[in-house]
Amino acid sequence: MSNYKKNILITGGAGFIGSHLVIQLVKNYSNYRIINIDSLTYASNLKNLLEIENSSNYIFKKIDIRDKNAVYKILIKYEVDNIIHLAAESHVDNSIENPIEFAETNVIGTLNLLESARSYWNNNFLNKCFYHVSTDEVFGSLGTEGSFLESTPYNPRSPYSASKASSDHFARAYHYTYKMPVIISNCSNNYGPHQFTEKLIPLMIKNIVNNQILPIYGDGKNIRDWLFVKDHIEAIDLIFHNGKKGETYNIGGDNELNNIDIISKLILGVDKALSRSEGSSKKLISFVTDRKGHDFRYSIDSSKLKNELGWVPKTGFDEGLQLTIDWFLKSFKEN
Ligand code: NAD
């Protein structure tokens, strides 16, 4: 029998959000054993976990969630009683090129985890939790008004969001059908250290540093609600411990910005950090053909999480962006 109070399986813990979650849980809960499984795709980086990799309450295993047998064996071996599921193919542009890969990891991979947990927990759901981490993109696209609530009907419009919506439906179905203690959270766009440089903010930082073009889709007016990754982690920690099983929680930053405004802020910040003349990198901006089916606006209403569990995002956008720029500039120098 494990001596730990909880044996938590985190999937996708070598990715952007997962790495921050693993670090927070390993450091803050020495009485929990954290088992991180990740297949180490291009988007992962084990270097982001160096500060905890030798901790006695941390285990890493290279496992693909598409491999149900391997997942099931991990649950048994480490007496897993809680799962926080983040592993996914996460880049919308890739999903447009390769939708099947997204269905295999995001849908079948999630189903493999749910099935393995159902089998291993065998209807004994006491002190168990299956926490599924999802996105606000499942709700579709908004015009200039309104925000997504937990009750907003799903209307995914990209292969990525369709695969995440499908995995949310399966997770919820396991709660209703088998009474599995499932919690889902749907979060807005994250930014911060450790994010792979295909995503808007790190890609733009990299290109400004290297004097390469800054490709902006369409007219650059698409709006996202941005949240600093550590505020997302605080929310997951809180929901995991205090959220009600069977419930869904929206998580957002109350920080709506269009792509042009973000890129302008990045140009200012990076030019300043590199002692270039103010705004000199504006010349790198290049408007390119819009992403197919590009959602116009996401906006998420997190009042349920705020009112019921007392969560508030702590990091202002400018502060979070500065931390992100500083981290990437340092990491580019080191690599
Ligand atoms: P990421 O792409 O940075 O990391 C995903 C991780 O999953 C990687 O380490 C990758 O190696 C791993 N992975 C991929 N396929 C796998 C497989 N078949 N088996 C095992 N591991 C596999 O993604 P992220 O931005 O950290 O997102 C994490 C989760 O949060 C995803 O489920 C995503 O849908 C969700 N989410 C992300 C955001 C965001 O803005 N990044 C917002 C809301 C929700």
Overall helicity:
40-55%
Bound heterogens, unique: nicotinamide-adenine-dinucleotide
Overall geometry comes to: globular
> Count of DSSP helices?
10
Q: Could you tell me the mean pLDDT?
A: 97
Number of strands: 12
Order of helices and strands: EHEEHEHHEHEEHEEHEEHEHH
Quaternary: single chain
Output the radius of gyration.
Answer: 20 Å
- Class computed from helices, strands and strand pairing: alpha/beta
Q: Low-confidence runs (pLDDT<50, min 5 residues)?
A: none
- Beta fraction of the residues? 15-25%
Taking the sheet with the most strands, its summary is: 7 strands, parallel
Compute the separation of the termini in Å. 42 Å
- Write out the strand line-up for the largest beta sheet, numbering strands in chain order: 3-2-1-4-5-6-10
Structural notes for this entry:
The structure is a single chain. With 335 residues, the chain is of the alpha/beta class. 41% of the residues lie in helices and 18% in strands. The chain contains 10 helices and 12 strands. The strands form 3 sheets. Strands 3-2-1-4-5-6-10 form a 7-stranded parallel β-sheet, with helices on both faces. Strand 1 (6-11), helix 1 and strand 2 form a beta-alpha-beta unit. Helix 1 packs across helix 7 (229-242) and helix 4 runs parallel beside helix 5. Bound molecules: nicotinamide-adenine-dinucleotide. Nicotinamide-adenine-dinucleotide binds next to helix 1, helix 4, strand 5 and strand 7. Residues 12, 14-18, 38-41, 43-44, 64-66, 86-90, 105, 109, 133-135, 164, 187, 189-190, 196 line the site of nicotinamide-adenine-dinucleotide (NAD).
